[in-house]
Amino acid sequence: MFQEQIRVGIIGADTKKSWAQLSHVPAINGLPGVKLAAVATLDEQSARQAAEAFGADRWFSDSLAMIHDDLIDVITIAVKVPAHRELVLAALNAGKAVYCEAPLGRSVAETEEMARAVRSRHTAIGLQAHLNPAVRRAAELLSSGSIGRPLNARIVSSTAGFGPEMPSVYDYFNTPSSGANLLTITGGHTLDVVEAVLGPIIELDARTETLWPAVKLTDTGGHSVREAPDHIDVLGKTRSGAVFTADISGGVAPEDARFTFEIRGSEGWLSLTGGHPYGFQAGDLKLTSHTPFVAPDEHPVSGGFMGAAINVGEVYAHLVHDLHAGTYNTPGFEHALHNARLIDAVRRAAERGERQKIKSLQGEDLRKELITNARNGF
After folding, report:
1. Which end of the chain has fewer CB atoms < 10 Å from its terminal CB, N or C?
2. Pairing of strands 165-166, 214-217
């Protein structure tokens, strides 16, 4: 049984413009029924400062100590991708609900390991735009037949990140083994929203490029070699029969970052648009259509950096409901595994120059696969 107020502890909530500071903290502090109980960072001084700045009851310089604290219900992991595995597995083993930023793991194998470890725990993955009210309303409009049969879609998804210059703290984005790059982050969010609206992707082709192979590190004056793509083009088809193209690019000026998702149907059209410099998943989206529709639901919380708390707040609101109701409707680690496999298919398509058929296991079918793999020791 959970307390009436769900107590959250955030790993990685420092005061130096961290993603937790820009989105998770304002989302938690703006939601009823959720409390920021604790924060954890790498040292005592930054942890104490974060607790004071964010209004947390307690602070930890040892993340594992916070994970095993009985006064915390949900562990939020908002640190670099290479650190996810150890912390996620520790939190699940401690019996905690876990909200982890996306991508969940550095590879499909690592992501599957964490998904297998979930068992009956509640989890949430940071593919937060999936729950944006405008995205959910767009999916409802399509399923209702308001634009007829979906025919095709064009997506432009850009971000200010992954360009020719970056601080050295983000240099790990340039190394594929870190699991964090334009393909796994912006690409993962983009294709997740495609599936949220148009349904499962069943096949795709892709082309990836590295437009800036030499990256200037702005704080040191040095340079780094980029070994991960900073431009991606995807051509795909969904189970609904719609074909789509997605242009996913990094390195645009912050004021030029934009997201457009235009869907043409046999009897009309609809469009989702956004413009957050961090990528569309960080801010709100606007829905328009040729036909009148009921406005998307109000956000449970707003605020954060240019609305960065909006979609994160949706995840927390859904997770809190699941915890109290004993349901599992929040996109969690199984959802993260499906997304990781989809992104891996994009990588294979680009490397081999071959169209990829997508084995789209979701829901109960994916759970059965994870159980079978666990029993077989995979």
Report:
1. N
2. parallel
Q: What distance in Å separates the CA atoms of residue 31 and residue 34, rounded to the nearest whole number?
A: 6
Cis peptide before 26 (omega within 30 of 0): no
pTM: 0.94
**pLDDT tens digits, one per residue of 190-222:** 999 999 999 999 999 999 999 999 999 999 999
Tell me what the mean pLDDT of segment 59-80 comes to.
97
Looking at residue 100, its amino acid is C
Residue 5: what residue type?
Q
Torsion sign (Cα): 48, 72, 313, 260? positive
C-alpha 55/C-alpha 36 separation (Å) is 7
**Tokens encoding 185:** 């982050």
Helices within the chain (DSSP H only) = 19, 25-30, 44-54, 63-67, 84-93, 108-116, 133-144, 188-198, 309-325, 333-352, 363-375
Q: How many residues does the chain have?
A: 378
Structural tokens at position 211? 């437009």
Q: Who contacts 42 (Cβ-Cβ below 8 Å, separation ≥6)?
A: 61
Burial of 336 (0-12, 13-18, 19+ CB in 10 A): buried
What SS3 class is residue 273?
strand
Identity of the amino acid at 135? V
The three-state DSSP-derived secondary structure of 62-82 is CHHHHHCCCCCCEEEECCCHH
